[in-house]
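Students often ask what a 'structure token' actually looks like in practice. Rather than answer in the abstract, let us consider Phage baseplate assembly protein V, a protein of 189 residues. Its sequence is given first.
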Amino acid sequence: MSRLVASEIRTLHRKIQRVERRVASAVLPGKVKPGSQNFEDRTVRLILGKTPDGEEVLSPPVRWQQPGAGTLKVHAPPADNEQMIMLSPSGTIGSGSVAHWSTYDDDHAPPSNKSTEAVIEFADGSRITLEKETTRVAARNVHVDAETVTLGGEGGKAVARVGDLVQVGAGSSAGQWPIITGSGVVSAT
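Now compare that with the structural description of the same chain:
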């Protein structure tokens, strides 16, 4: 009887070790291995740690999470050395694993530390800042492609472009005349 009990305890011990290993593998922090992003398959490899010899321990290629893929679609590939968290709900690292965005660190600082604004910043420094009653777009170039652009709220006055005809109501220049010069900063087609 004692052999049967000892065998059963060893079996339970092995099962507990397997469960503990799976639980430990369910949530793993890591950093994006530089150059590992596969934009076609939308996968990335994470550096999960180092061996005693100093070699990197890499995840297999895993999909990265996007903020939206339905009504709002966002394409934001992870950057080299970006901190992420690999979630493997079953505890088995593989096709069910997903790399989720993590938090800021020394390699990737936050774009703002103000509680009153939300900021989207791109790798080239372009940024969109949303504050109460104010939205700022800062970029080297801003292109707006739309059938109609309204500046200053609904019902504003029309804006003319170089080449548009304007009506001059009085004087020796009365009539319709083309605008021949414009801003060197703002342009429209």
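One point worth highlighting: The CA atoms of residues 19 and 91 lie 8 Å apart. Ask yourself how you might have guessed this from the sequence alone, and why that guess would often be unreliable.
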